[in-house]
């Protein structure tokens, strides 16, 4: 997985959306990230008041990209990301939901 700068991540995500238009889909995940690369030990000392960040990952087929968003950059990144979604997600097909079986006669 490639860790990118926020602006480069958005540019690459745009390319992933364009490639996925014809074949496949793009999976985007976000989660809270405290900057640690290893988990806290069970009985160990935890970091008091860590400055949390946001880890964002995107995947299309075998290409994976990611970025870490600092607290001070969240608002600008979110605005740019929402504009990207508005322009890129315009040809979505509606998912067909499976029909529920009628309730058995009581």
Automatic annotation (TrEMBL):
One of its GO terms (cellular component) is signal recognition particle, endoplasmic reticulum targeting. It is found in: Cytoplasm. InterPro entries: Signal_recog_particle_SRP14, Signal_recog_particle_SRP9/14. GO terms for molecular function: 7S RNA binding; endoplasmic reticulum signal peptide binding. SUPFAM superfamilies: Signal recognition particle alu RNA binding heterodimer, SRP9/14. Coiled coil: none annotated. One of its GO terms (biological process) is SRP-dependent cotranslational protein targeting to membrane. Keywords: Cytoplasm, Ribonucleoprotein, RNA-binding, Signal recognition particle. It holds the Pfam family SRP14. The keyword Ribonucleoprotein applies. It comes from the Eukaryota. The keyword Transcription does not apply. Gene3D superfamilies: Signal recognition particle alu RNA binding heterodimer, srp9/1 (3.30.720.10). Signal peptide: none annotated. Component of the signal recognition particle (SRP) complex, a ribonucleoprotein complex that mediates the cotranslational targeting of secretory and membrane proteins to the endoplasmic reticulum (ER). SRP9 together with SRP14 and the Alu portion of the SRP RNA, constitutes the elongation arrest domain of SRP. The complex of SRP9 and SRP14 is required for SRP RNA binding. Heterodimer with SRP9; binds RNA as heterodimer. Component of a signal recognition particle (SRP) complex that consists of a 7SL RNA molecule of 300 nucleotides and six protein subunits: SRP72, SRP68, SRP54, SRP19, SRP14 and SRP9. Belongs to the SRP14 family. This is Signal recognition particle 14 kDa protein. It comes from Pieris macdunnoughi.
């Amino acid at each position: 997985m490639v860790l990118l700068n926020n602006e480069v991540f958005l540019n690459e995500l745009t390319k992933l959306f364009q490639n996925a238009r014809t074949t496949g889909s793009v999976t985007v995940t976000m989660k809270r990230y405290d900057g640690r690369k290893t988990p806290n030990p069970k009985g160990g000392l935890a970091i008091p008041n860590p400055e949390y960040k946001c880890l964002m990952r995107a995947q299309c087929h075998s290409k994976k990209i990611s970025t870490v968003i600092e607290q001070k950059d969240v608002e600008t990144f979110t605005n740019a990301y929402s504009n990207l979604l508005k322009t890129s997600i315009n040809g979505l097909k509606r998912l067909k939901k499976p029909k529920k079986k009628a309730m058995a006669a009581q």
